[in-house]
Design brief:
The protein is of the alpha/beta class and 325 residues long. The protein has ten helices and twelve strands. The protein has two domains: 134 residues, Response regulator (Rossmann fold), CATH 3.40.50.2300; 140 residues, Response regulator (Rossmann fold, 3-Layer(aba) Sandwich). Bound molecules: alpha-L-arabinofuranose.
C-alpha cells in the first residue's frame, strides 16, 4: 500500500509539474515582447488608414502589445496621448507628428522617464538633441523630385514651351508638405518653361482639394497646364471640379498626385491622372523591429526610408499590382 501511495504521489507531482510547465509556456506566449504606445494623426486619407492597419497587423505578427490612439487631426490630442503613454510606462513610444513644431516639452518628459521615442512617417523641428531615436518614413523630398521629373518629361513629349502649374499642398508645416514642395521646386527651378501660378493649402483632405481647385479654376481657368497635388485625396476632390469647369483632366491639364492608393491608380488607368508617385504606408514591420531593438538596448538606424516608385501614363498601367490601401 505504501509503495502504491508513493508511486501515486510521484505521478501527481509529475502531473503538477507538467501542468505548471504548460501554464508557463502559455503565459510566455501571451505575454507581449514589449508595450508600444503609438499616437496616430487621424484618419484623413486612405494612406493613413492603411498605415494604422499595417501597424496593427505587424504588432500582432511580432508579438508586440499596442496602445494605439487616434488624435483626430489635433496636435494637442497627440501630446495628451504621449503623456498617457509615459504615465502607463510603456517600453517605447512612436508617433507621426501632424506638424513639425511644438514637441520639445512632451518629448523631454518622455526622455526624463527613460522611454525611447520613434518618429513614424513625419519629422519634427527641434534644436534639442536626442529627444527622439530615429525616423521611419518616406523620403518626401525625393517624392517631390520624382513628381517634377515626370512633369519635365511630359512637357518634353508634348513639346510644351510653357507649363503653368498650380500646387495643392498638404497640411501647412507638416514634413510631407514642406519636403514635397522643396523637392518639386528645386527640380523645376532651372527649367524656364515652368511657372508656379499659386500654391494653396489643401490639408490632405478631399473636401479641401475640391475647394482649392474651384478657387484655382475661378482665378486662372484655362491658364492652368498642370496640377501638382500632394496627396490622392485632394486630387480625387479636385478632378470633378476640373470636369465641371469644362476641362478634361489628364488631357487638357496634366494631373500629378502622391500616395498611389488603389483609387488613384484606378483613375490613372482611366487616364484622368497622368502620374502618381508612391508613398507607402507600410511602415509597421520596420517600426516593430526598431522598437524591439530599442527595448534590447541595441543601436538603430537614424533614418529608415522605404523604396518608392513612380506610376504614370508612360508605362503599361495594367501591370500595376493591387495596392492594398
Ligand atoms: O504623411 C504622409 C501623408 O499623410 C500622406 O501622403 C497623406 O495622404 C497623409 O495624410
Amino acid at each position: 500500500m505504501k509503495k502504491t501511495g508513493l508511486i501515486l504521489s510521484i505521478c501527481a507531482l509529475f502531473f503538477a509539474l507538467f501542468l505548471q510547465g504548460c501554464g508557463k509556456v502559455k503565459e510566455e506566449k501571451n505575454e507581449p515582447r514589449l508595450l508600444l504606445g503609438v499616437s496616430q494623426i487621424g484618419s484623413e486619407s486612405a494612406w493613413r488608414i492603411g498605415n494604422t492597419k499595417d501597424i496593427e497587423e505587424e504588432a500582432l505578427n511580432y508579438g508586440v502589445g499596442l496602445m494605439l490612439e487616434n488624435a483626430n487631426q489635433k496636435q494637442e490630442n497627440q501630446i495628451a496621448a504621449i503623456r498617457r503613454f509615459i504615465a502607463y510606462k510603456v517600453d517605447v513610444i512612436a508617433f507621426s507628428p501632424i506638424v513639425e513644431e511644438g514637441w520639445d516639452n512632451v518629448l523631454k518628459e518622455a526622455k526624463d522617464a527613460g522611454i525611447p521615442v520613434i518618429l513614424v512617417d513625419r519629422d519634427i523641428n527641434t534644436s534639442k538633441e536626442d529627444l527622439t531615436t530615429c525616423l521611419i518614413g518616406a523620403d518626401f523630398y525625393n517624392e517631390g523630385v520624382m513628381a517634377a521629373e515626370y512633369l519635365k518629361r511630359k512637357a518634353d513629349s508634348l513639346q510644351m514651351d510653357h507649363v503653368n502649374i498650380v500646387e495643392i499642398t498638404g497640411t501647412e508645416n507638416s514634413t510631407p508638405m514642406r519636403q514635397r514642395q522643396a523637392g518639386f521646386f528645386d527640380t523645376i527651378k532651372d527649367d524656364k518653361r515652368m511657372t508656379i501660378l499659386e500654391s494653396i493649402d489643401g490639408d490632405f483632405l478631399t473636401s479641401r482639394g475640391a475647394e482649392c481647385m474651384r478657387y484655382l479654376l475661378d482665378t486662372y481657368g484655362s491658364e492652368i497646364d498642370a496640377v501638382y497635388s500632394h496627396n490622392d485625396e485632394m486630387t480625387i476632390g479636385a478632378l470633378p471640379e476640373i470636369e465641371e469647369a469644362g476641362f478634361a483632366p489628364g488631357k487638357d491639364m496634366i494631373i500629378i498626385s502622391i500616395d498611389a492608393g488603389q483609387e488613384a491608380i484606378d483613375v490613372l488607368k482611366e487616364g484622368k491622372i497622368n502620374c502618381v508617385v508612391e508613398c507607402t504606408p507600410k511602415l509597421g514591420k520596420a517600426l516593430m523591429e526598431t522598437a524591439l531593438k530599442l527595448k534590447n538596448g541595441e543601436e538603430v538606424d537614424k533614418v529608415i526610408h522605404p523604396e518608392e516608385l513612380c506610376f504614370s501614363d508612360e508605362m503599361d498601367t495594367s501591370t500595376i499590382a493591387p495596392r492594398g490601401y
